[in-house]
Amino acid sequence: MNKFNRKIISIVLVILTILAMFMLEKFTDENKSDKVYQKIDLTQNYITDCTIDINNMGIVKYYIEPNIVSVYLRIKVDKNARNLSYTTEKLDVIVSQGTKKGIWPKLNPEDELEKNKKNIIPLNLELRLPNEDIHQYNISQGKVKIIDKQKVIGEININIINSKYKN
Predict the structure, then answer these.
(1) Which pLDDT score is estimated for 145?
(2) Where are the beta strands (DSSP E) in 17-150?
(3) Other C-beta atoms within 10 Å of 100: how many?
């Protein structure tokens, strides 16, 4: 090969590498919204709504795994709250607690919830949705209740929709 052909191949490879970087960045941006993050302040509101639209979850998530939704709740509670636990209603869900440093094991409703120094409970929900309901506007509704010593101190209404099918 002569020097001219090598230069052309080098230029083409550099252009293809840059193009691949842009495509990977677009792919990453597209899938950043496959998880839902929500801050909830139960010191201000007893009942809070959390609406999740699976149409906003990115094209890969929407077509490959639309029936599993990850929701990361950061729930602020009163500083005097002790012996916290949770219950769920009408949700097929796996609940865990986690921090930026890692995921904690799966929780059962009778397990005590941990709160951090700022009185925030990190609660991770992995919701499983019925496949037959994915292609309609209202997919699922349920509740997460936070309990302090046998008394409900807050309710989080989880509404899962698909805005693609709004009438």
Answers:
(1) 95
(2) 35-41, 47-53, 68-76, 84-89, 93-99, 102-107, 120-128, 138-148
(3) 5
What mean pLDDT comes out for the span 62-69?
A: 83
**Token digits for 141?**
């509704």
In this predicted model, what pLDDT tens digit does every residue of 146-159 receive, in sequence order?
Answer: 998 889 999 999 99
3-class secondary structure, 31: coil
pTM assigned to the model: 0.78
For residues 62-81, average pLDDT: 88
Can you tell me the distance from the alpha carbon of 95 to that of 87, in angstroms, rounded to the nearest whole number? 10
Residues 81/84/90/91 CA torsion (nearest 10 deg): 110
Specify the long-range contacts of residues 44-48, CB closer than 8 Å, at least 24 apart.
Answer: 45/154, 46/153, 46/154, 46/155, 47/154, 47/155, 47/156, 47/157, 48/154, 48/155, 48/156, 48/157
The CB density around residue 4, as the number of other CB atoms within 10 Å, is 8
